[in-house]
Amino acid sequence: MTEPNTTEPNTTEPNEQPLLEIDGLTVEFGTDDGTVHAVSDLSLTVHGGEIVAVVGESGSGKSVTAMSVLGLVREPPARTLAGSVRFRGRELRSLSPRELRGIRGGPVGMIFQDPMTTLNPVMTIGAQIAEAVRLHQPEAGKREAMRRTRELLALVGVPDPAARVRQYPHEFSGGMRQRAMIAMAIANDPALIIADEPTTALDVTIQAQVLGLLRTAQAETGAATILITHDLGVVAELADRVVVMYAGRIVETATVFDLFAQPRHPYTLGLLASLPRLDVPTEELRQIPGNPPDMANPPDGCAFHPRCPLAREICRTERPVLADIGDGRQSACHFAGELDGRSGAQVFAGTRAEVPE
């Protein structure tokens, strides 16, 4: 596992207004099998220049949260029941579709998980990036927009950008398509970049290159970044702060160093125990028993209790609130104080991860 980022995290004055404020967001989906509680009472802030990683298993609500910021969750079948999303103090949920289009790709850039399904297959890469430039910079003519497009492609490491602007998405490799998506996301110097699983389906070498590009993008724009991922190696490499989600709720928040050094939620302990460690190469990998809950019929109490080795009666009947536990950290566990000094290997001692031969 990559060593966590130990550089001084981005800090802001306590009275400085957050760049992004999500307060009490609740999103449900109507399905044939019932109502799926995708995100429940989620609150999150992001300050200028910081990288906040949002982690959790598939189905934990990470991507729905990110899509909700930009109004990309289709209603119906989704229903946003409650919550506020404010960017630079402006309520985004009250904006018209036209006003939201002025936010997307401008002050807020988006890097999607699968660029092949996001990019328009019948438009050249150059035309798509140039269109994003002209949409938010109407004073730029076609020639200036294309010049900026070539500049952006060069910045993200696409070779021979003068020729590549005339190619279509299917003529780019997966890694090159992701580079084009990053170029489009930073085309208008955003204040916030949302990256949804940006390294999914890429091989390890290309993943490393894309992570380097995300650093370049932030350095180029000075933007804050929300990094949606299930890869804790990526989190250790890039993040300042980590938000851990489970079953549509935040269960722990901490700086990246504190989270890796001493998790304060059993779910986080389980995630870390399932990863190989370079500093303890002989340590046996553990697995979290069971499966994530059915969000159309979530369990009572703490949603993690059916899989938690530490669960007690209160965990089965009373849902823990996300509470401050000191040092700027939060945990949604009735027994967070008892986890100090305990490792995932200890807590999940009765499990063993299946390792492919």
UniProtKB/TrEMBL annotation:
Keywords: ATP-binding, Cell membrane, Membrane, Nucleotide-binding, Transport. It is found in: Cell membrane. Pfam families: ABC_tran, oligo_HPY. One of its GO terms (biological process) is peptide transport. Its main location: membrane. Residues 20-272 form the ABC transporter domain. GO terms for cellular component: plasma membrane. InterPro entries: AAA+_ATPase, ABC_Ni/Peptide_Import, ABC_transporter-like_ATP-bd, ABC_transporter-like_CS, Oligopep_ABC_C, P-loop_NTPase. It is a peripheral membrane protein. PROSITE patterns: ABC_TRANSPORTER_1, ABC_TRANSPORTER_2. GO terms for molecular function: ATP binding; ATP hydrolysis activity. Belongs to the ABC transporter superfamily. This is ABC transporter domain-containing protein.
